[in-house]
Amino acid sequence: MKKSIFKKVGVFAPFLAAVAMSGCGGSGGGSNSPQQGPVEFQVGQIYISDDREVDSRLVTMSVFSTVNWRTFGSKGASSGKFNDPHGLCFDKDGKLLIADTGNHRIVRMNDMAGSGWVSVGTNGTSVGQFLSPMGVAVDSQNRIYVADFMGQRIIRMDDMNGTNWTELTSSPQHVFGQVRDVVIDKFDKIYVLDISGRLCRMDDMTGAGYVSLQAVPSGGLANATDLAINPMGTMFVVDSGQGIVHQYSGMDGSGHLSLNAVAIGQQGFSAVTVDTIGRLILTDHHTGEIVRIQDLSGEAKEVIGSLGNGVGKFFGPGRLVVRH
User: Fold this and answer.
1) CA separation, residue 257 to residues 12, 225, 237 (Å)
2) Which pTM value belongs to this model?
3) Which of 68, 242, 282, 313 sits most deeply, having the most CB atoms within 10 A of its CB?
4) What pLDDT was estimated at residue 294?
């Protein structure tokens, strides 16, 4: 069993890979899509990480309308570029954080022109380094949490300088493996989703109050890839391997509901988020579609998008977030 690590250090200036920009180049992401939407992050807009072998970018649009369609970024490792981006979240100042998985870094930017671009992290498992980070979240104090997938750890830092870098890894008292996602609820409790399909919750970065989800469905959540929590504390877990989204109201497994993508005419689900009025928005990586439903009844289904290059088309839509 891997030894627990609770490590806290200060700023790691030698490891900081930060670049400030004002309007990076690369606003097309290899796409010929016209830039129709506002540069500023807008409440109610949806933001999506979009990736394929030769292209990586962020896409935004008005939810279920291409009216405000805009893209930013392209494939690469320099400023204004991404390599297989995954998790997205907005901090308390309205800035967008991106887990730039293939570049082993966390990126923050102020708008869809990439202004204020700053990144932290290099490839590795030491302080100031990440190994394929897949999830990012913030708490009520605007501290940043990172699901460091191959590093098999949760990292917390106070800011994009890496101040008070703190790590938590698995132990017999709080077990988790390669971490695919991290979410912080309104009480600042830490939810962790790992590669084995284990969903656990902890009170803080010491691992106190550890509890894992009980009464998981037959076959488990072995291919769980994304987690979202609504303001009422209801958890939504996407199992992309089985093409199912699960709902739980408690860590005891209570309130379990599920929806198979096939039941509503989709090929699968890849990620999930909750919009400003509580509806679920999911990505279908197979078809390039974004799907919105009222709840897990599948009612009021709306679909937008397809695979391709142009307005309303995606390379391979992944994680997503709505600006609240």
Assistant:
1) 44, 17, 11
2) 0.92
3) 282
4) 97
